[in-house]
Design the sequence.
């Protein structure tokens, strides 16, 4: 740059992702959550399917029964925690299949905003989490597109 000359240049820097955690939450425990953090939760001891959760007795939009690759936990994902949407008493049910038998397991725990550390928590690598979340969005989009195409096909 020469004297008296201004250089108009905008530099773009990608903001770092919010921290993401693997956390084992046991029956009756409290998850201490911080704003904007992501939490990959293991809440069932066994491998269950068809997980559904009520928060303060209301069904909310959280991701359950995920299919992330290890080491990410798959039972529940709280993405970008915020106090108004994610705090409260969680009661989650999952289906456990043993042979031809199916039974419902129930786990309850509390999520609250807190700066305290969690027991059984592990900070996850930012790049690994970003890739897993991008893959999950791509799979969801593919499923939605296929469902839409099939519904159009069946109406013809």
Sequence:
């Amino acid at each position: 740059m020469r004297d008296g000359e201004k250089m108009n240049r905008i530099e773009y820097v990608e903001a770092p992702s919010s921290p993401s955690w693997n956390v084992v939450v046991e029956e009756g425990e409290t998850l201490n959550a911080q704003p904007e953090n992501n939490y990959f939760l293991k809440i069932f001891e066994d491998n269950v399917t068809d997980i559904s959760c009520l928060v303060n007795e209301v069904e909310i939009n959280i991701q359950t029964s995920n299919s992330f690759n290890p080491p990410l936990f798959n039972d529940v994902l709280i993405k970008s925690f915020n106090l108004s949407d994610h705090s409260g008493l969680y009661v989650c049910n999952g289906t456990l299949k043993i042979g031809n038998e199916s039974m419902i397991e129930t786990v309850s725990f509390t999520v609250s905003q807190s700066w305290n550390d969690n027991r059984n928590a592990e900070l996850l690598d930012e790049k690994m989490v970003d890739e897993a979340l991008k893959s999950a969005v791509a799979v969801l989009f593919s499923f939605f597109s296929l469902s839409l195409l099939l519904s159009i096909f069946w109406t013809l």
Q: What stands out?
A: The chain has two helices and ten strands. The first strand starts at residue 20 and ends at 24. The longest helix spans residues 126-155. Helices lie at 83-86, 126-155.
